[in-house]
Specification:
The complex is a heterodimer of chains A (553) and B (173). By secondary structure, chain A is an alpha/beta fold. Helices cover 50% and strands 9% of the residues of chain A. Chain A is built from 18 helices and ten strands. Chain B starts with 9 loop residues before the first helix and ends with a strand. The chains are: A alpha/beta (553), B alpha+beta (173).
Amino acid sequence: MDSSGIVVGAQLSELTSLTGQVGRAGGTLSEAGGVLAGALAVAGLPAGPATTVQATGEWALQAASGLRRRLAMFEQADHSGGMPTARQAGYGLFASWLPGEPGLGALLDRASGGDKAALTALRQRENAATSSDLAIAVNTWWGSLSTAAQQQLIKSDPGVVGWLDGLPTTARDQANRIVFNSDYAQVQAQIAQLKRETSGDSKGLLGVAGIGSLINDVDGQGAVQAELAHLEGILKGMTAIKAQLEQQGPGDPRVYLLGFNTSDLGHAIVSYGDPDTAQNVVTYVPGLGSGFGSTASGDMSRASRLYGTAKTLDHSASLASIYWLGYNAPQLDLTRSVSALSGHAIAEDSEVAFEADAKSAATSLDSFAWGLNAAHDPAFAAHTVVLGHSYGSLVVGEAVTRDLGQLADDVIFVGSPGVGVNNVQGLHMNGEHVWAGHAAWDEVPDLPPLGDPRLPEWLNIAGMPATEMIGMADPDATHFGIDPSTGPFGARDFQAAPGPALPPLKAHSSYWNPDSVSLYNMARIVDGMYDQVQLVAPQTTAPDLSTPGASRP
Amino acid sequence: MIGSPGQEGAGQVIRRRCRTGTAVAGFLAAVVLAGCGGSGSVTLSHAQAASRAQQIVNDTVAVLTPKPQLRVYAPLTGDTNCEDSSGGQSDLVNGSVSYVLDGIPASSAKQIADQIKAYWQKQGYTFTVTQGIGTDAPNILATTKDGYNVALQTGKGGPMSLGASSPCAEPAK
């Protein structure tokens, strides 16, 4: 609403006046219905018309009450500097009723009072991502709370509030920093404690140096060492995140922590720039092996580098570049796998498991993206870009296919082993806005399917001799669909530098190299500078996969 | 809220496997982000990398007419983890510099691009992209003989930027 009191083409004062008239008319009609009922009775006529008039009056009274609530919402939004969207107004109109979300209103009411179980249930509903409107409902609910109530929820249950999709960025950031600071101190303390325990023998069990560790090993002290290593990995990732949260060089954007916990291998969502106000918002989903202990530093570098490059190409557009590790990226515990399972079992199980993991991650990504959309400044829509690398491209593909395709303006896949479907039609997106990059020396998009006789040679190229896998699997099997950078997929294949040929897989990590063509291309897509994206000329012949390496750049 | 212990980070596993050269478990291990064994031969120091990147920019600007003013505008494009090492997870960095070229009228964009292209060609750089040469929105990417990426880019609305980035270097102490 502007200073003249105009809201979406209507005058607030006029609406208030009209609502009053509806209420007064309702009262008058109710009274008239009563009078009419008496008159009809005296005349010995049926009472039906009087009942109708009375019912109409009562309906008008109820409608006036609802209209007053909605007007109050407009006024509140105006006072807080925001402007309700049509969807938010719809939420005001229909309260918290959403198809497929029974009992949401009651749940939100309980959550308002700080009911931890209700907050957790709300988060679980979001994780299921059954309705893209849920984030709108959550956003509107949050906006309806007083500042004091919001602060109470943030401080009493930051671990859940920080992950609620649809909440404003500032609220999530505040909650997650509380969790982060608490966990940081706790992890440090735990490490110190474990180190004291494992070095306790220095004073000597039975006074003999070293015998303690010997006995400890016998007692399974290896588990303690494993926990220590795990915690040190977590601390390493947290230290990297801490550095990002604290950095604020000249011209640097503010960094927001949109999600954080140390469960499993750790989860973190870090945004360079405020996605609630940004014109361009890109969410990067890292791939296999990601966990903030092991990869957060490098993965955040990618998001920050994309931010800097996109801003260099478009100074004026506001931007948020997000690192999204909001899921359990599959890990390959190779040592354990080799000893425990045959190559065949691993090959088959891993593929099934990975696809299941991707589907699970896709719902979280869907919910997150719709949450950003719900929390965004309603004055304009963000240009929404989703970027998946490696296995992360499968997660993005699954999310886009599932629901995210309705929201994303552009989707980027790099170094993809497949995105779950074999063409852009499967993604339900316009192929003009599906982009794929493939560094020529990146082996991952070219990996032949299981059972393909070329596979062992490729694995050897990648330094992975696995001849035992020849012919073990279904020869018709594919990975997760065809490489999206190939012509039949229908995406726009953009240029990427070939990358280094050796050592194996280095090219797979080359897409964010500074001043590289792939990084500039991704930045231009983020900026909507489509005409200047460097595309690969369409191939006229099928690539020769029979001699890996030999036919490359 | 502290997570349960257990799995080792995949990056650690992969690095160890690469050192030992043992066989991989599943073919999808190839999807692992990291390359292996990349950082052992790094001898470039951060100071050398930054100095050389700056020198490339300075030498390039020296041949330009009209002479631009170099303005730092590159949030978050400073030293970052080097992707050419173990998948971006190492402590190595790229030394990078990036400047907006102020004082270049749009009518001179073509001239500037021609001069830069000619100079880089003379230096023996390998061109990756030469786009928009002859227009007011040129984009040139190249690699120097010693592995630095160099870029002349035209942003939205016409501002040109000039950048140079080093190969992997040891981080500043």
